[in-house]
Amino acid sequence: MDSSRRKFPVMLTFDVDGESLWLNRDAANEHRPVTLSQGRYGPKVGVPRILRLLEKYKIKATFFVPGWIAENHPQMVEQIHAGGHEIGHHGYLHEWPDRIGSQEREEELLLKGIEILERMTGSRPLGYRAPGWEFSRYTLPLLSKHGFTYSSNMMDAESPYIHDLGEQSEPLVELPVQWLIDDSAYALFNLQIPGGKQRPNRELFEIWSEEFDGLYEEGGCFVLTMHPQIIGRPSRTRLLERFIQHVNRHPGVAFRRCIDTAEELIASQNRTQS
Description:
Elements: E1 8-15, H1 20-25, H2 33-56, E2 62-65, H3 67-72, H4 74-82, E3 86-89, H5 103-121, E4 127-128, H6 139-145, E5 150-151, E6 161-162, E7 173-174, H7 184-187, H8 201-218, E8 222-226, H9 228-231, H10 234-248, E9 253-255, H11 258-273
Parallel strand pairs: 1-2, 1-8, 1-9, 2-3, 4-5, 5-7
Antiparallel strand pairs: 6-7
């Protein structure tokens, strides 16, 4: 890739599901303290370790936080915010929009998450990642209605794009993702998840770095999705550091928060149209 070309954006994103992943999966998990402790490890131990790594490399990242997690781990939210990282919307209790059941209830939960994050950080979340990476037929119109700048959920592209929501709508950028570059596809394990298997770091590094190399060569963007209860383990954080070092060996790369990439695309579109 010619370093004189526009910067190739790399976004490190963290879905801080914490206990909400398990509470939403099965209400009986409320009475399973060991299961909940697996999720609690993310906000309690994983996030601080990740923040130290990001500070070491002077990288700003995006953390998608469910409202319930923000309420129950306020110190974690303060630490993320103080580090200059973006905090995006990730539902309230990790509800999958396609399973909520009604537009009214989906909007209620969306607004609840907005209110919590705005109250705790002083600004409204501008980015949205759906739990389970799934939408209902109401999700995109609701994101547009409530002033979101971007979504990071779709898997139909390799470059950022703007959703077609009609001429009267403000631009809503999509920052595409993929299971191939998500840590949970390889390392999420619990007795309640049949078939879960822990993959060694060398396999994840090979998959992530080869996908990065391909996208870097062809152009687009790279959105890596991680979960602090997984990537926050000491060995997994070393994997992330190794990947950061791999990325840094490529000229013309810029680590960015999701909001920065989204706003750049909107600004570029406005310049083109003016």
